[in-house]
Amino acid sequence: MDVLQKEIDEVYATQSIARETLDKNIVEQHRSFIHSLTKVNGGCAVISDLSTRKSYVVVHPWAHFLGLSPEEAVLSVIDSMDEDCIYRLIHPEDLVEKRLMEYKFFQKTFSMSAEERLKYRGRCRLRMKNGEGAYKYIDNLVQILENTPSGDVWLILCLYSLSADQRSEQGIYATITHMEQGTVDTLSLSEEHRTILSEREKEILRCIRKGMSSKEIAAALYISVNTVNRHRQNILVKLSVGNSIEACRAAELMKLL
């Protein structure tokens, strides 16, 4: 369940990085850097490489708050731009808002000059399930780490560390900071989170949850079966799920219904 994946991939696609010859020693230098970084913050660091569509991961032995399996905790390379093994542990409500924050952050920074985009940092505080099945608050940071010689985005850094603030609050308190100017913009994502699905899509999903067929839904809502099926497909795409049962469960977890 990874909402906005299509939209974020479209932002990634604005970079023509695949045509460049890049110095892989730079990647190794940054991988060494995140090893040192996790020793300090006791958490997890991920570098996503747009040129290979891979992610490089370092997890500190103390990072039990992440709830990773022993096999996942020793992963060093993931064949994806996204750390899916971590995303599955994020509370579904918070994951939607995190992806909204990332989308806004990438939209904003990818359109900037190469030098300027390195000055920005996105932050949030979200809930992640630990090894005991309890949710803990985690500080999350995203930042563009390296551009290509021609000025496209190349490497993106994402950090996870146990938050010193474990007070329960609504929303992930997402911000985008300009580090040179010292300005902090707070993003209001809760309302956007709630409008991931249209009111008609929510209405249809409630009918699906009751066990109604497309024909029954069409009759109840005075629309065609084709329209119902189109809405059903849109719901699956928006929630990044494979079937209606998963869609109902995802929408309930995200409190969309």
UniProtKB/TrEMBL annotation:
Domain of life: Bacteria
SUPFAM superfamilies per record: C-terminal effector domain of the bipartite response regulators
InterPro entries: Sig_transdc_resp-reg_C-effctor, Tscrpt_reg_LuxR_C, WH-like_DNA-bd_sf
HTH luxR-type domain sequence ranges: 190-255
Any Pfam family matching the protein: GerE
BP GO annotations: regulation of DNA-templated transcription
Record's keyword terms, sorted: DNA-binding, Transcription, Transcription regulation
Record-level Gene Ontology MF annotations: DNA binding
PANTHER family: DNA-BINDING TRANSCRIPTIONAL ACTIVATOR DEVR_DOSR (PTHR44688:SF16)
Record protein name field: LuxR family transcriptional regulator
Source species of the chain: Bacteroides acidifaciens
